[in-house]
């Protein structure tokens, strides 16, 4: 009899209960016991959902109050020394994640090529990881057992943990390998005391990247040690997001129980099955990253190919990765068109898909082709000519037209969205207020925002984006081919959730996307008003995109629509237009051999969206939480006039990439972290600017926060921007 396995489950709650509990606690409205109560309810509910669908392998320790990598840092006793003066464990935990009055938060970046952000561990030479602590694991294990679940225990694998960390003293991460593995051995010994026959799942998504021989040799050493810690434990090494053939060849000879592979995004894993060597194969067949129902016929055919190389009694059917990356359930979607909803599968529906696939496989009943998702024909698009002059020519024209001072100041786009702002937008959507009332309210917010920025002394203003619920969803609502869920929330980081649009059909621009609000804002000031758009690559990477045609085709449909908007903005005398590509790096394939193809269509679609801009129209773009070392040439090919990036948590290391590449365009390094409520001092931001000037010529430097201000409060925004302006005045 075959079995089913869920790699991991969403934790924020079907109605975002954890989000609201955390935010109430952070605001001082409740105590931590209230958070613990909500967390316990959610864990029990999620375990029961999986039991109801007869999932055989259900996780514990996939739940987190903020981030699993941060939890692993605590488990290994790797808390950075700068937080050791915080006596309360909970205060320390959230200070590491969010910062507090006395501590800057730890760095945060994207989890591989997803929109989930993790807290980057801070390691240094000679760490011994002597304070291993499995109290969280033990508590959840006991809770699950009380619910009638014999859970597997999820751990971030030692190699993924180590090589996603930051060596804060510049030491070689390889030098910490033995200490990290030794700490994991201690963790496994402690877990082995919890009972018998415990499955421990090591998440090693790093194995899906292109790996160097030195790394592969460590992989072998690590799992030869971890695989024999205790006979009470069954070790499963799970990797996902792409193929992992090189790792499988080594893991097949290690003393572990099972290997988990992603066959949705790594069908090439079929070639690695000869190396599984009679181990259990956890076959990732149900898509854990996208919301469209699996093509049952093709999935079954792929399973048949797997069974040609692996005995049926050695195959466990699984999700391709954790279901953390999809919304909770379509059962809460009452307004979606039936033709869209019928094609969707969120986390709970994926449990059904997995259960159904298992039943079909047991009975050897192959689904019919007619059960497959029907294709939607793509829009036929023509190429957009790129007619912009070389950067030096554009720079001269823009300097003359804009006449900006040294170190121009701006923000990334959004300003705080209060409860009142959201209430007005929701009231309009529900038909409770008229269009005239809604637009009047928005104009009041924009006017106040423009006055606020002028009072602060910013050089390039924005309209504040009060009409926008989200930087992607807003545009999707004005384009054909998109649908929107009511409760399709996905955790992005901590309590922050996003609701990605559902890109299901052909895309075209129905009406102006931002022109009216931008032109109105410009009419209120003599200073340049920045038009704010989202780029085609980010719209794709932050949407659930139809899976029946290549993303590259969809990208050019979206680029056409953005290009039309760029042209209309400049014809309305908007001289600066920002086309955000915050998720550009996020979409990169993990395997080197797939990168060129992605870069080609990603760069070309971005340039298609801005190619219509006149030379005197200054094009900005924004990228956040990215490592640019390996893509700096690609960024240059994008040919933006100004790029704004996040450097507040990562110091100068990102800027040095631009320096080394002799990057000529202008750069706006984020001088303070908007993801933390902490307000940096004038002195602190002055030091940030000085650090930037050690790397960049003054003529290249813009000054701005590191991301949009939507999630911050007005008082802290005013305080932080005031300090930023003062620091700029000192620098000037």
From TrEMBL:
Keywords: Amino-acid biosynthesis, Metal-binding, Methionine biosynthesis, Methyltransferase, Transferase, Zinc. It comes from the Bacteria. The gene is metE. PANTHER family: 5-METHYLTETRAHYDROPTEROYLTRIGLUTAMATE--HOMOCYSTEINE METHYLTRANSFERASE. Catalyzes the transfer of a methyl group from 5-methyltetrahydrofolate to homocysteine resulting in methionine formation. It comes from Sulfurospirillum diekertiae. Binds 2 Zn(2+) ions per subunit. L-homocysteine binds at residues 412-414, 580. Pathway: Amino-acid biosynthesis; L-methionine biosynthesis via de novo pathway; L-methionine from L-homocysteine (MetE route): step 1/1. The active site is at 675 (proton donor). This is 5-methyltetrahydropteroyltriglutamate--homocysteine S-methyltransferase. InterPro entries: Cbl-indep_Met_Synth_N, Cobalamin-indep_Met_synthase, Met_Synth_C/arc, UROD/MetE-like_sf. L-methionine binds at residues 412-414, 465, 580. The lineage of its organism: Bacteria, Pseudomonadati, Campylobacterota, Epsilonproteobacteria, Campylobacterales. Belongs to the vitamin-B12 independent methionine synthase family. GO terms for biological process: methionine biosynthetic process; methylation.
């Amino acid at each position: 009899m075959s079995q089913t396995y869920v790699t991991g489950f969403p934790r924020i709650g079907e109605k975002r209960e954890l989000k609201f509990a955390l935010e109430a606690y952070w605001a001082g409205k409740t105590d931590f016991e209230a958070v613990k109560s909500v967390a316990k309810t959610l864990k029990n509910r999620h375990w029961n959902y999986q039991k109801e669908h007869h999932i055989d392998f259900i996780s514990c320790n996939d739940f987190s109050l903020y981030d699993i990598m941060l939890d692993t840092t605590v488990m290994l006793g790797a808390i950075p020394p700068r937080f050791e003066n915080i006596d309360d464990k909970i205060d320390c935990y959230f200070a590491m994640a969010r910062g507090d009055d006395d501590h800057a938060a730890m760095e945060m970046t994207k989890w591989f090529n997803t929109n989930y952000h993790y807290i980057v561990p801070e390691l240094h030479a000679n760490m011994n990881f002597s304070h291993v602590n499995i109290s969280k694991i033990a508590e959840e294990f006991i809770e699950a057992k009380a619910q009638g679940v014999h859970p597997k225990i999820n751990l971030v694998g030692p190699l993924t943990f180590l090589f996603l960390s930051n060596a804060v003293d510049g030491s070689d991460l390889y030098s910490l390998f033995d200490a990290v593995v030794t700490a994991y051995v201690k963790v496994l010994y402690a877990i082995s005391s919890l009972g018998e026959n415990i499955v421990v799942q090591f998440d090693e998504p790093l194995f899906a990247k292109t790996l160097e021989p030195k790394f592969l040799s460590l992989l072998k050493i690590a799992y030869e040690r971890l695989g024999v810690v205790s006979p009470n434990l069954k070790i499963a090494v799970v990797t996902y997001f792409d193929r992992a053939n090189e790792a499988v060849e080594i893991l097949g000879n290690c003393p572990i129980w099972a290997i988990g592979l992603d066959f949705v995004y790594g069908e090439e894993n079929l070639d690695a099955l000869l190396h599984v060597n009679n181990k259990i194969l956890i076959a990732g067949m149900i898509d854990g990253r996208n919301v469209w129902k699996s093509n049952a016929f093709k999935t079954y055919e792929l399973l048949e190919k797997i069974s040609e190389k692996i005995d049926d009694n050695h195959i466990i059917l699984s999700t391709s990765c954790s279901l953390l990356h999809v919304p909770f359930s379509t059962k809460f979607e009452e307004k979606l068109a039936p033709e869209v909803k019928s094609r969707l599968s969120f986390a709970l529906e994926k449990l059904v898909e997995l259960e159904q696939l298992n039943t079909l496989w047991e009975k050897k009943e192959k689904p019919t082709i007619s059960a497959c998702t029907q294709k939607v024909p793509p829009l036929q698009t023509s190429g957009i000519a790129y007619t912009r002059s070389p950067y030096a020519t554009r720079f001269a024209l823009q300097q003359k037209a804009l006449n900006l001072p040294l170190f121009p100041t701006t923000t990334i786009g959004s300003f705080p969205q209060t409860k009142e702002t959201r209430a007005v937008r929701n009231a309009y959507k529900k038909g409770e207020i008229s269009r005239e009332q809604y637009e009047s309210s928005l104009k009041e917010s924009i006017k106040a925002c423009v006055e606020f920025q002028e009072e602060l002394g910013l050089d390039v203003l924005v309209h504040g984006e009060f009409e926008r619920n989200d930087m992607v969803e807003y545009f999707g609502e004005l384009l054909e081919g998109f649908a929107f869920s009511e409760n399709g929330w996905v955790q992005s980081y901590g309590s922050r959730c996003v609701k990605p649009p559902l890109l299901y059909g052909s895309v075209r621009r129905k009406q102006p996307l931002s022109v009216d609000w931008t032109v109105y804002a410009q009419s209120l000031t003599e200073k340049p008003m920045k038009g704010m758009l989202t780029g085609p690559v980010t719209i794709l990477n932050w949407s659930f995109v139809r899976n029946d045609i290549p993303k590259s085709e969809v990208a050019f449909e979206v680029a056409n629509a953005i290009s039309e908007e760029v042209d209309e903005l400049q014809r309305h005398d908007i001289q600066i237009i920002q086309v955000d590509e915050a998720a550009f790096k996020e979409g990169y394939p993990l395997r080197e051999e797939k990168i060129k193809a992605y870069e080609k269509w990603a760069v070309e679609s971005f340039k298609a969206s801005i190619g219509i801009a006149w030379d005197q129209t200054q094009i900005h773009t924004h990228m956040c939480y990215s490592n640019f070392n390996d893509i700096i040439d690609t960024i240059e090919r994008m040919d933006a006039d100004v790029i704004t990036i996040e450097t507040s948590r990562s110091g100068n290391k990102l800027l040095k990439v631009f320096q080394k590449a002799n990057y000529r365009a202008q750069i706006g390094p984020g001088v303070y972290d908007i993801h933390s409520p902490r307000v940096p001092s004038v002195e602190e931001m002055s030091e940030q600017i000085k650090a930037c000037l050690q790397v960049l010529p003054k003529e290249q430097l813009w000054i701005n926060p590191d991301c949009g201000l939507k999630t911050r409060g007005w008082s802290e925004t005013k305080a932080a921007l005031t300090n930023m302006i003062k620091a700029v005045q000192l620098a000037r």
